[in-house]
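Backbones bend. To wit:
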Amino acid sequence: MINFLKNFFQNYFYDDEHYAALFFLIIGLIVFYFLGGILAPILISILIAYLLNGLMTYLEKKGNSRILSLSTTLFVFSIFYLSIFFFLPFLSRQILLLVSDIPQIFETVNTFLSSQFKNYSDIFSESQIDEFISNTLNYIPSILQNALLQLNAGFSTIMNALLYLIIIPFLVFFFLKDKTFFLENLKILLPAKRELLSTIWKDLNLQLYGYLKGKGLEMLIVTLVTGIVFYFQDVNYSIILAILIGLSVLIPYVGAILVTIPVVIIGLFQWGLETSFYIYILSYLLIQALDGNVLMPLLLGREVKLHPVYIITAVLIFGGIWGFWGLLFAIPIATFLRAILVSWPIKVS
């Protein structure tokens, strides 16, 4: 065991820079673990500024001045950001309506499950059916409660949420405007010899920018298309469902499975098993199919070279550690860790 550890450190930590990189990695993980929820708006602002910097750099390369490029980039961001406030009143009304309808929704689920299990009365006894339905209906509120608790960790109050909405655009503005200042200050903290860190960053930047840009566009397109389709189908809580389905693309594989549950329940509550319900479900499945088979390959390609098993594992681990924010940042963190493993040099004995 001692020889194994000795050989490991000789092969993987044969330079002072390796220890420095490990030190920064450990410090970063500790900070994220204890302050992940508090730092969430700053991290989101950094990611948004990181994406917008691509547009600003592109405009500068086209011969535009830095001020004009910055102004144009901020104008595009402002249009998108202000549209969020436009939809907030509609969203709040749908949330209030959903909360008031929850008892009737549970009653609808109860009636539906009871009617379906009657077809299997020769297999299951009435007491078994009642017990299953009771356990299912008790489990659904616990899922909702856990979801609310996870959201509560990030937004403890409505005022907190509004504060985030106000802080983020200001942070994005300063991160873009004073990018050079922040990068120079970051270099002061880094060791003078940083070839390894530069290699890691090049690999990470190549994958992460493409992933974030692609996922952002995918989320926006899926949300808008779903909202429009559900609006013309006169679906109850169409904005809520569109946002949930849009956010689900940020959580690969797991997100699509989880969001299907409220989609089906709300459809049953509104139409039962009428023809409109099947048209509604078919349109939802069509959106998911087009997203998975056309939109996602087109926007992302092979930007993130992670096996599906690693992606699901990252979602489960980081979601378990940081809850809602862990789910959103799972893939960027996993991409960062992969960049370290791929770029880390090994001494050949």
